Amino acid sequence: MKSSPWTPIAAVAIVAAALTGLFVSRRNSETQALAQERTNRPTNAAAEKPVRVQVQQPLQKNLTQTVQLPASLIPGETADLYAKASGYVANVLVDIGSRVSAGDALVELSVPEMKDSLDQAQALLAARKATLSALQAQMEQRDAAIAMARAEFKRRQSLYTLQKITADRQKKLFDEKAIPEQTYDEAMSRLAVAESEVNIAKAKVRSAQANKQALQADIAEARANVAVEEAALTRLKTLMTYATIHAPFDGVITRRLVDPGAFVRSAAEGISQPLVTIARVNRLRLVLHIPESDAAHVRVGTEIKAVFDQKDFDPIQTRITRTALSLRENTRTMRAEADIDNTEGRLIPGLYARASVSLKTDARALLVPSKSLRIRGSDVSVLVADGTIATAKPIKLGYDDGIWAQVTAGLNGDEQVIVATSAPLAPGAPIAPTILAP
Q1: What is the pTM of this model?
Q2: Counting Cβ atoms within 10 Å, is residue 21 exposed (0-12), middle (13-18) or buried (19+)?
Q3: 93 vs 278: CA distance, rounded Å
Q4: Strand, helix or coil for residue 3
């Protein structure tokens, strides 16, 4: 039987040789890696050098949010004054820039046909009043006639009573055959005449009363005619007052659109143009339009500060006087106005201003410099100094005016926020912080 060339001793020798080679190879590899590490050590040391940063603790203070909006000054009131009567311009008593008071005459119109109608109405009214006076004078005569008729009736009635007594006595004597029949007949005849005269007197009283009633109806009609003519005259006088255009309030004439001799048509008759325009300038309105996003925070009393581009005009600190309480559909803005006292006349209507509107105040708001924010899409964070390491803190923002940003979540106020670095900085990098004074 032939023996194997591999003996146990030989096998052990081979394994030992293999292990020796592996150890030598590993030692060579470690030696090379150590040499390479020593070669790269200066470079890594430079990369791990701390970055100098400035840190600041978040501020806590009352924050008033504001919005900057364009605004403009307009007159407190403006009115285009039209003619109510058609006619020719007789006089223009003002020009642009004229300061007027309420009730001042501005423009006078000439309306000849209206003057003729006024004269005719006055004459007709005088005639109506004369007729009424004559009828009222007749009323006194009618009252006198009634009084006379009643007196005559009473007298006739007394005579009738006397004749009745006499006739009754004569009848008794006649029945006793004490007087002749002729005497009795004469007594009865006188009684009949007396009765007839009483009826006639009564009829005269009724006639006088009827005449008075007819006269009363005539007087009532005459009074109605007078009232009609007085109303017509009043109307014409009112129309005549329209021939003079008066200032409705204190103000300044900003437009004059007619000259003497021009024919103007009554605004009530159709299309017409104004004669003059008046504006109240002793009280102005600062007008601004609040965006939909801020409209809920603007109300009567909201503080605003207006600054004018023209340096000749001082800034105005005031409050909102009124708001429209609704949004305009085309602009999605709400009109707001503030009344401005311009008694001294320092401001000019039409000025453009930049208004700072105070929207709301947050008590003890947490603020960080806006330059410290790190924005990645919709995510916002800041770097804070965690010892000597920069750490990222996700936060939520409120108000941000570009200088200070309000942090509504993510910080408690004790952190040291990195606000400036000497080199680009990433979370986890070593830092050398310097604390800035608040």
Answers
A1: 0.56
A2: exposed
A3: 13
A4: coil
Shortest CA distance to 362 belongs to which of 59, 57, 56? 59
From 69, 71, 74, 72, select the one nearest 292 (Cα to Cα). 69
Question: Under a CB-based contact definition with an 8 Å cutoff, are residues 51 and 432 in contact?
Answer: yes
Pairing of strands 51-56, 431-435: parallel
Question: pLDDT at residue 438 above 80?
Answer: no
C-beta separation of 269 from 82 below 8 A: no
DSSP annotation of 313 = S
Rg (CA), the chain: 58
Amino acid 251: pLDDT: 94
Beta strands in 200-266 (DSSP E): 244-246, 251-256, 263-264
Token pair listed for 104? 């001042």
Confidence grade of residue 47 (pLDDT, cut at 50, 70, 90): low
Which of 432, 401, 402 is CA-nearest to residue 416? 432
HSE, side-chain direction, 13 A CA sphere, residue 321 = 14
The answer, yes or no, to whether residue 301 has pLDDT greater than 60, is yes
